[in-house]
Prior knowledge:
The protein is an alpha+beta fold. The chain is built from 6 helices and 6 strands; from the N terminus they run H-H-E-E-H-E-H-E-H-E-E-H. The protein has a 6-stranded mixed β-sheet, sandwiched between helices.
Amino acid sequence: LPMADLGTTLQWAPVFHASPDTWRVMVREGTIIGYWQYLWLTDEAYESVVRGEMRDSEISVSHIDFPLVGYESSCRNLYLIMLGVDPQFHNPHTCGLLVQSFVEHFRASAALGVLPDRAAAKAQTQQGLDLCIKFGFAPVLHSTLYPGNLPQLLTIDGSIEVWTRNLTHPAPPRTARSR
Length: 179
């Protein structure tokens, strides 16, 4: 994606600083090889993202909201911004570890009662699109901001309980099949 969509270090640094519990990096020998990030957005910012009116590069600290445990009126708009591995280190093992890290973090948050009412994500690759669909996201209409097949905006609204249940309750272990 062009820098106009992605943003800059100057734009993202305050966002990362303001929301330290919503991102993780994967490091190998001192080099960042992958990371994931999501944000809890205000209602207005979430709606702008879903309508395709706000680019990631326009997200600022003023768009962040923080869910409060035990408050029904608390913000619950999750936007999964990035879950990706550097192409040099892209392999099933590394990708699996990154996804596992996100799922474990989400489960820990859910155990504290921090769960989304709705969620959105932007898939920038076919693999990202497949992962979003596996997580239960469904594509929304393409906007003029992103005309084409990718990136594609996906949301979960009505089935957020299914997504939450899938992420917070581990699947039963697979048993080895004999041949």
